[in-house]
Amino acid sequence: MEKTIDSKYIQQHLANERTYLAWIRTALAMVGIGFLIVNIHFSLNDTSQAADQFAQIIGIFSVVLGLIIIVFATYSYLIKKRQINEQTFQPSNRIVWLVSLFTIAISVLFFLYFVVY
Question: Which residues does the UniProt record annotate as the domain DUF202 (predicted)?
Fold first, then answer.
């Protein structure tokens, strides 16, 4: 078999794949948490219309956040793959900050939901 440029940096590419899969797990957890909140909310019998809407907003926001994480993780994976081969790797601070801010926002929504309702 002929060696490819990817085979020069096998460990880095494998680490890149592990990081990608970790982001995918994070995205699935966000979606799952949204479904959990909505499911718990509608399992309760004494809910108001405002509480119903708030729970639905949390559910929609977490699904959208999960999809955003998947898109950015895929984009980041492909960029890092190219950067590894070209030996121009730079860490991706933007995606970390973006996901952190969205995670904080959804955590605040969860907190408000449990405190208010």
Answer: 12-82
